[in-house]
């Protein structure tokens, strides 16, 4: 089955395509800015940097992945005093047992890892758009 058949001639098995999808009507379609993509990746990289590094700085915990893993969990003082914060602190805090603190550390570490992966993916996509633009004479 051709792509045209899949859209127009497949009867009840036809693919539905939003008629307002950019570019289907012959207009230029979606525009991507590799420089904006790189700027976003740079901004995310600044935030990601805050998750890396030593557990302590000038006698204080830093909020890095290493800090969270070394210090176990969080306390209500660090999270807040409102009722949901208290419940969350009990779940992931030192008083809530090791399982909650370990789960928090694991998820925090995964978040840092996925953020790095997202930054790399954004930069790779910007490179692809630049390459396609050059190849198309743009």
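^ structure tokens above, recovered residues below v
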């Amino acid at each position: 089955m051709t792509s045209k058949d899949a859209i127009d001639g497949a009867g009840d098995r036809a693919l539905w395509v939003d008629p307002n999808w950019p570019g289907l009507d012959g207009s230029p379609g979606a525009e991507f800015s590799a420089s904006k993509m790189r700027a976003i990746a740079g901004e995310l990289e600044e935030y990601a940097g805050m998750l890396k590094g030593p557990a302590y700085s000038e006698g204080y915990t830093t909020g890095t992945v290493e800090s969270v893993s070394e210090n176990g969990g969080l306390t209500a003082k660090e999270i807040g005093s409102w009722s949901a914060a208290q419940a969350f602190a009990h779940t992931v805090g030192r008083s809530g047992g090791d399982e909650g603190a370990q789960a928090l550390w694991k998820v925090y570490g995964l978040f840092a890892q996925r953020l790095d992966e997202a930054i790399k993916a954004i930069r790779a996509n910007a490179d692809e758009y630049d390459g396609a633009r050059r190849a198309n004479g743009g």
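The chain has a mean pLDDT of 81.
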